[in-house]
Design brief:
Blueprint lengths: L20 H14 L8 H7 L4 H17 L4 H7 L2 H21 L3 H30 L5 H29 L3 H21 L16 H20 L9 H21 L15 H21 L1 H9 L4 H6 L1 H21 L4 H22 L10 H21 L5 H43 L7 H4 L3 H37 L14 H25 L1
Helix pairs in contact: 1-6, 1-8, 2-3, 3-6, 3-9, 3-17, 5-6, 5-8, 7-14, 7-16, 9-10, 9-17, 11-16, 11-17, 14-16, 15-16, 15-19, 17-19
Length: 535
């Protein structure tokens, strides 16, 4: 049974009206979602101002996502240890400090470390807000409903943050985005001091039994993979000692993590977590999804900027279409998946169909002179499909036993928010390089002195025309192969029927979760006493 009483937030002082309390916490979580160490939409301006490479800034940005994903495993431990007021003050102060560091440091390791810590604070504060609002959003604790809200919030804030960053950098300076976020975080801290109290419904639990070393090693593993994917092309892949060392480190760290998890009592991610079908299946399917979505990180920007001639303001204005798609995808998933309980496979198939349609649109319609409005359809389909897949895969983890649920969230975030995107982009960039060389050679083979077209153009004009045509042909070729991959995935989904529906996606009550954690701590203490007695 679940609580049926009226929703309330007792950590907020009594003089704050009840109707405004959830909206106040919702405003808090939007601010925390907008905050971060750096803002990838302004990567070019930031790299030029700080005399860094774009790869350096990207590495720091993805380090923030790695810290964010790692925090899933210990979120309830932090919630049962610190009150909401303490959490908001710690996270607000930590994010302000990280923003200051990222604005002025010229050291890449310092920036990466600051962004990694900023990701932890961002996820900690976000979870505190969302766990407070859970019963307001879904009184039955239905995760299929709750995750529709989560994806609408997170993806919406990502797109809005990108628009805000570009417009701020265009009309002022990229540092003003940091100052804006620092001001918002300061406001959150002031409101927290004024409106919140240190309320606890249960006694605090100590942060004992957490495998901090294992968490650090998993974080370093993902950072090594991201380093290889981001810097691989810059250092000519395995011709460089840096890429070879990072690859060896990633392999060694994975093996060490799995070895440690086989004998310590409370590993950061238990070996059993990897054996559940929703965990490893969504992990590998996310790799395919990130490969199909890789053109949005590479080819679409090249096409809009180099061929269509759009500036940053025109490119970022298309985020409005993506925001509409996020809203539509969340609403569609809510009414079909959460309310009508459509199957996981049906929603996944629709998501893949939308992403494949987006790839096919570019394959058939890519050209030199299409208007900006013509891009609305493929961008809508891409964002719509990703939202469906994201909510479905996140809800699928509710099939995992609760003691492994948050570890499964971290595992999924390793690929969905961590290295999946950069891995797909790295593969696509290497494929584009090979395809460009082949098409440039084929298109330029007939341009000699006998060719009348070559005689009317200067050499630099002729070279530019060949390169541009080779780029268009290469992009069309890559979109075609990716569209065939998407069609093949849809065919696989159609082969086997599944009746699995999100009927049991119910989150346990916090008292039950706390009771489970207390039992684990008690057993750990008992085991330690037995070892001391034996010694």
């Amino acid at each position: 049974m679940h609580e049926t009483g009226p929703f309330s937030i007792p950590s907020i002082r009594d003089f704050v009206p009840r109707w405004i309390r959830p909206w106040l916490v919702l405003a808090f979580v939007i601010v925390f979602q907008l905050s971060g160490g750096i803002y990838l939409a302004a990567v070019s301006e930031m790299a030029g101002s700080l005399a860094l490479m774009q790869e350096d800034v990207l590495m720091a940005g993805y380090a923030s996502l790695v810290g964010l994903g790692l925090t899933f495993t210990i979120m309830f431990r932090l919630k049962f240890r610190f009150a909401s007021k303490t959490t908001f003050l710690i996270c607000g102060a930590g994010l302000i400090l990280c923003n200051f560091i990222c604005m002025y440091t010229h050291s890449v390791p310092v920036m990466v470390a600051a962004c990694f810590v900023a990701g932890i604070f961002r996820m900690w504060a976000t979870f505190e807000c969302n766990s407070t609002l859970q019963l307001w959003i879904t009184p039955k604790r239905d995760l299929s409903v709750f995750f529709c809200y989560i994806y609408l919030l997170v993806q919406g804030c990502i797109q809005f943050s990108g628009m805000l960053t570009i417009y701020t950098a265009a009309f002022a300076n990229w540092k003003y985005m940091h100052w804006l976020v620092i001001g918002l975080l300061g406001t959150v801290m002031l409101i927290t001091v004024w409106a919140f109290r240190s309320y606890r419904s249960m006694r605090k639990l100590p942060l004992l039994g957490i495998d901090w070393l294992g968490g650090l090693m998993w974080g370093l593993t993902i950072l090594c993979i991201i380093f290889v994917c981001i810097y691989g092309d810059h250092y000519d892949w395995y011709e460089s000692v840096y890429i070879r060392v990072a690859t060896v480190m990633a392999i060694v760290l994975v093996l060490l993590n799995l070895w440690r998890a086989s004998f310590i009592r409370h590993p950061y991610i238990a070996l059993r977590t990897w054996t559940f079908r929703p965990v490893y299946l969504t992990f590998f399917i996310y790799l395919v999804v990130d490969l199909l979505l890789a053109p949005s990180h590479l080819l679409e920007h090249i096409y809009m900027e180099s061929i269509l001639g759009f500036d940053d303001l025109h490119v970022i204005s298309l985020n409005g279409v993506i925001l509409v798609a996020i809203l539509a995808g969340s609403a569609f998933t809510y009414f079909t998946f959460a309310r009508r309980k459509w199957t996981y496979k049906t929603l996944t198939g629709i998501g893949f169909a939308a992403i494949t349609a987006h790839l096919m649109w570019f394959y058939f319609y890519i050209d030199y002179n299409i208007p900006k409005e013509a891009l609305w359809i493929p961008l809508f389909l891409r964002a719509f499909g990703y939202i469906l897949i994201g909510i479905t895969f996140l809800t699928a983890l509710s099939l995992v036993p609760f003691q492994h649920f948050f570890e499964a969230l971290s595992v999924q975030s390793f690929v969905s928010a961590g290295f999946g995107g950069v891995l797909g982009t790295a593969i696509l960039a290497h494929l584009l390089k090979i395809t460009m060389g082949k098409n440039t050679m084929l298109l330029g083979a007939g341009l000699d002195r006998v060719n009348t077209l070559a005689g009317h153009l200067r050499p630099e004009q002729l070279y530019g025309a060949v390169q541009q045509q080779a780029l268009i042909v290469s992009m069309k070729e890559i979109y075609g192969w990716l569209a065939l991959t998407g069609l093949f995935c849809i065919l696989l989904f159609m082969i086997k029927e599944s009746d699995l529906r999100p009927r049991a996606a119910i989150h346990p009550r916090y008292r039950l979760i706390r009771r489970y954690i207390k039992h684990e701590l008690r057993m750990r203490k008992k085991t330690k006493e037995q070892r001391v007695h034996t010694a």
